[in-house]
Write a structure and sequence with these properties.
It is found in: Mitochondrion. The protein is mainly alpha-helical. The protein has 36 helices and 6 strands. Among the domains are: 91 residues, no CATH class; 100 residues, Serine Threonine Protein Phosphatase 5, Tetratricopeptide repeat, CATH 1.25.40.10; 126 residues, no CATH class. The chain binds one DNA strand through helix 7, helix 9, helix 11, helix 13 and helix 15.
DNA sequence: GTAGGGTTAG
C-alpha cells in the first residue's frame, strides 16, 4: 500500500525531487496512503490533514515500515528518502508483479523508484538468511554484484553467511575464493559455515591459512573452531585451538570458554572441562548446559540433576537446552518422580511444550514405563517435528503396541511429515516385535519412495522381522542377496531367531559367523555355546567358552531392580544379601505354589547348560526378576502397578511365571529389559510371547 | 557482517 502510494506520489510530482510533499498530501487525501501512530498523526494534524486520513496499517516501530526519523525527515522536505525505510520489511521478499521469478524490491531498484544503499542489501540478505530462502538470496546476490557497492566487504560477508546458513556451502566457498579482499570476518564466516554444517575438517583447515595471512581471530572465530574441534576425531585440534585462545587473550570470553567446556566434554575430558568451567569469571546458561549435557549423554543422571539444581541456586534460569538434557538424564536413571516434578516446574515457570524439549519428556515417560503419559505428551505438543514422531513410534514399539505404531506412522505420512532413516527403523522394529511381517516388508520397500537409503540397521531389522516370524530360510536368503556384506549384527539377529525357533543347524552357522566378525560381545557366545550344549557337542561348548575366557568376556551378571518410593532395590540372581532375604524367599515360595496350582510349569531349558560344579550350582539360581517381584509384592499395597527394570533380557521361564503372577495376584506388572517393555496383566503379556 | 549448549535409533 505504502509503496503504491509512493509511486503515485512520485509520478504526480513534477519537481525533480524524488517525492514531493504536495503529492504526498494528495495521496493521503485520496486515501491511498494509510497512516497510523501518534507521531505521524501529529505531523499530519499540524498540517491540517488529520481528518481525511485513514488511520491504520503502517507500523510505528522503526524497523517496520517508515521509521519515525525518516518520516520526520520526509516532512522536512528532504531531497531523497532512505531506501530501506521506503520498503516495508514484510515486502522484502515479495514476488514481482510482472514475473514469477523476480523480486518486487529489485524491480523497484531497477525502475529507480527506490535508491538502494548497502544497508538495504544487508537487510534483504538477512531476511533470506533468517527464512532460509536460498533462491531469493541468490537473486539479491546477483543484483548486488551489478550495483556500485559490489566490492563492499561488509555485504559480501553477509552474502557468504547467507549461503552457509541456507546450506549452500559450495556457493559460499566459491564467493570466498573469488573475493580479492577478505577480512577476518570473511574467514570466520566460512569457518562457522563449515562447523555448523558438520564439516569440521574443512573448518579447522582454514585456521592455519588465516593465521598465515596475519589475520587475528576473534571470539567468533574461536567459538566456531571449538565447535568444529568437538566433532573432530581426536582432541588434538581442540587443544591447539585452546592454546591460541590463551595466547590471543580470549580465555575469559564467555562464548569461548563455554565452547571450551563443551569441546573437552565431548572427548570425555571431564577434568579439563571442569577446570575451564570453574575458572570462568562469568558464566551463563550455555556454560551450565554444556556441562549438564555431558553428564546426560554419559547416562550420569544424578550428576546432571545436581548441576541442574546448582545452576538455579546460583541464579541461572534453565533454558530449553537445559530441560532437554535434564529429561534425558531422568530417563536414563528412571527418575520418573523427579522428572515429573521438573516437568511441572518447567510448565509453572512458563516453559512451553515445544518439540525441542517435549520430545525428551515423551521419551522419559516411555522409558520409565508409562506409555500412557508418553502418548499424552505427544498429543499435547505445541509443535511436532520428525523426532517427536520417532520418539512416539519408539515408545509404542517398545511397549508392544505394534498396531498403534503402524497407525501413527500412516498418520505421519498422511499429514506430510517426511520420515527419516530412524523413523523407518522405529516402524520396522514395531512390525518385527509385533509379528506384522507383511507390513514390515512393505515398509522396507517404502524406504525407496522416501529416498531413505537402507542402512545396516535396517537390514538387521528385516532379518529380525523374518527370523522372529519363523521364516528362517527367507531370512538367510535375504542375507545372501543383500547389497552389503553381512555384519555380526546381521548374523546375531538370525542367531536369536534360530534360538527362538530351535533351529540348531542354522543357529550354529549364524552363531559362528557372528562371533567371527565380533568377538567382543558375550551374548552370541553364550547362545552359541548353549546351542552346542543342547545337542551334546561338549567339545564345541568348551571351545566357545575357552575363547570367551581368553578374551576376557564374562556373561554380564543379570540384575533387576524395583523402585519403591524413591529408593532403588537391586537384586542379582541367587541374591541372599538383602536384609529382607528371608521374607523375600518365603514370599517367592508362596507365590510359586500359587502359580503352579494355576498351571505354571517351570521351564528349565532357559537355564544355561554348564559343565563344571560352580556352574551347575548356578542352575539352581533364583533369577533376579523373581526376587525383585517378590520384594515388590511384599512392599506395595495390593493392586498397585509394579515396575521392574532389568539389565539383560527377561528369560522365558520368568516371563511365563510373571504372567501367572499377574493373574493370581491381580497385579499389573511391567518389566523393562534391554530391548523392550513387557506389560503383564490378567495372565498375559503385551508382547504376546513374541519377543 | 562472523560464535557456543538439545532430543529419537543402535
Amino acid at each position: 500500500m505504502f509503496i503504491r502510494a509512493l509511486h503515485h506520489v512520485r509520478s504526480a510530482s513534477s519537481s525533480s525531487r524524488l517525492f514531493s510533499f504536495e503529492a504526498l498530501v494528495q495521496a493521503i487525501k485520496h486515501g491511498e496512503l494509510e497512516i497510523s501512530s501518534g507521531i505521524y498523526q501529529e505531523h499530519l494534524h499540524r498540517r491540517g490533514l488529520s481528518s481525511p486520513c485513514t488511520i491504520a496499517s503502517i507500523s510505528t516501530s522503526s524497523n517496520k515500515g517508515l521509521s519515525t526519523s525518516a518520516f520526520e525527515a520526509f516532512f522536512e522536505d528532504n531531497e531523497e528518502g532512505d531506501a530501506s525505510c521506503i520498503i516495508q520489511e514484510k515486502d522484502y521478499l515479495r514476488k514481482s508483479h510482472n514475473s514469477k521469478e523476480g523480486l518486487y524490491v529489485l524491480d523497484l531498484i531497477d525502475q529507480g523508484s527506490i535508491v538502494p544503499d548497502h544497508t538495504l542489501y544487508n537487510k534483504l540478505l538477512k531476511k533470506c538468511t533468517d527464512l532460509g530462502k536460498l533462491r531469493e538470496g541468490r537473486m539479491i546476490h546477483e543484483h548486488f554484484l551489478k550495483s556500485k557497492f559490489k566490492s563492499d566487504v561488509f555485504t559480501l560477508n553477509t552474502i557468504i553467511n547467507m549461503y552457509t546458513k541456507c546450506g549452500s556451502l559450495n556457493d559460499a566457498k566459491k564467493m570466498f575464493d573469488e573475493m580479492p579482499c577478505k577480512d577476518m570476518v570473511t574467514w570466520t564466516a566460512l569457518i562457522s559455515g563449515y562447523s555448523q554444517n558438520e564439516r569440521p575438517e574443512e573448518a579447522l583447515a582454514l585456521f592455519p591459512q588465516m593465521i598465515e595471512l596475519g589475520l587475528k581471530p576473534n571470539q567468533f572465530t574461536f567459538g566456531s573452531l571449538l565447535k568444529a574441534s568437538g566433532s573432530a576425531t581426536t582432541d588434538t585440534p581442540g587443544r591447539q585451538v585452546h592454546a591460541f585462545v590463551v595466547n590471543c587473550g580470549y580465555s575469559s570470553d564467555v562464548y569461548v570458554a563455554s565452547s571450551l567446556v563443551d569441546m573437552y566434554a565431548r572427548f570425555d575430558r571431564i577434568k579439563e572441562a571442569q577446570i575451564v568451567f570453574d575458572g570462568m569469571v562469568s558464566k551463563n546458561e550455555v556454560s551450565w548446559n554444556a556441562l549438564i549435557a555431558f553428564h546426560a549423554r554419559k547416562g550420569e543422571g544424578k550428576d546432571a540433576l545436581k548441576l541442574f539444581w546448582r545452576m538455579q541456586r546460583e541464579g541461572f534460569k534453565p533454558t530449553h537446552f537445559t530441560y532437554a538434557s535434564v529429561f534425558k538424564a531422568c530417563a536414563s536413571t528412571e527418575s520418573l518422580e523427579q522428572g515429573k516434578w521438573i516437568h511441572a516446574h518447567m510448565l509453572k515457570s512458563g516453559g512451553k511444550l515445544i518439540a525441542f524439549v517435549g520430545n525428551t519428556i515423551l521419551d522419559m515417560y516411555a522409558k520409565a514405563g508409562s506409555i500412557e503419559d508418553a502418548r499424552k505428551i505427544f498429543n499435547r505438543l505445541e509443535s511436532r517435528d520428525v523426532v517427536s514422531w520417532n520418539s512416539m513410534l519408539t515408545g509404542l514399539a517398545q511397549h508392544g503396541k505394534a498396531r498403534e505404531a503402524v497407525e501413527r506412522f500412516e498418520e505421519m505420512l498422511k499429514i506430510g511429515v517426511p520420515p527419516n532413516y530412524i523413523t523407518f527403523l522405529c516402524v520396522l522394529t514395531a512390525c518385527s516385535h509385533g509379528g506384522l511381517v507383511n507390513e514390515g516388508l512393505y515398509y522396507f520397500e517404502l524406504m525407496k519412495k522416501y529416498n531413505v537409503e537402507p542402512h545396516v540397521d535396517h537390514y538387521v531389522t528385516k532379518v529380525d522381522l523374518l527370523g522372529r516370524a519363523g521364516l528362517l530360510n527367507k531370512a538367510l536368503d535375504f542375507i545372501k542377496d543383500m547389497p552389503i556384506e553381512p555384519t555380526s549384527a546381521i548374523w546375531g539377529a538370525l542367531l536369536g531367531a534360530c534360538r527362538m525357533h530351535k533351529n540348531t543347524e542354522l543357529g550354529i552357522f549364524a552363531g559362528e559367523r557372528c562371533i567371527e566378525l565380533d568377538h567382543t560381545d558375550s551374548g552370541p557366545h553364550i547362545i552359541l555355546s548353549n546351542i552346542y550344549a543342547s545337542i551334546g557337542r561338549l567339545s564345541d561348548v568348551a571351545r566357545v567358552r575357552k575363547r570367551m575366557r581368553e578374551i576376557g568376556l564374562d556373561k554380564e551378571p543379570g540384575n533387576s531392580w524395583v523402585k519403591i518410593g524413591n529408593a532403588d532395590h537391586v537384586f542379582v540372581a541367587n541374591d541372599d544379601a538383602h536384609p529382607l532375604n528371608e521374607e523375600i524367599r518365603k514370599m517367592w515360595v508362596k507365590v510359586s505354589e500359587k502359580i503352579k496350582q494355576a498351571g505354571y510349569v517351570p521351564d528349565t531349558s532357559h537355564v544355561l547348560a554348564f559343565t563344571d560344579q560352580q556352574e551347575r550350582e548356578a542352575r539352581l539360581q533364583v533369577h533376579s526378576e523373581k526376587l525383585a517381584l517378590a520384594f515388590a509384592l511384599l512392599n506395595t499395597p495390593p493392586g498397585t502397578r509394579i515396575l521392574i527394570l532389568k539389565n539383560i533380557r527377561v528369560c522365558g521361564d520368568c516371563h511365563s511365571a510373571i504372567k501367572f503372577v499377574s493373574k493370581v495376584m491381580e497385579r499389573d506388572i511391567i518389566v523393562r529389559d534391554t530391548k523392550r517393555y513387557h506389560h503383564f496383566s490378567g495372565g498375559s503379556c503385551s508382547c504376546k510371547d513374541y519377543w
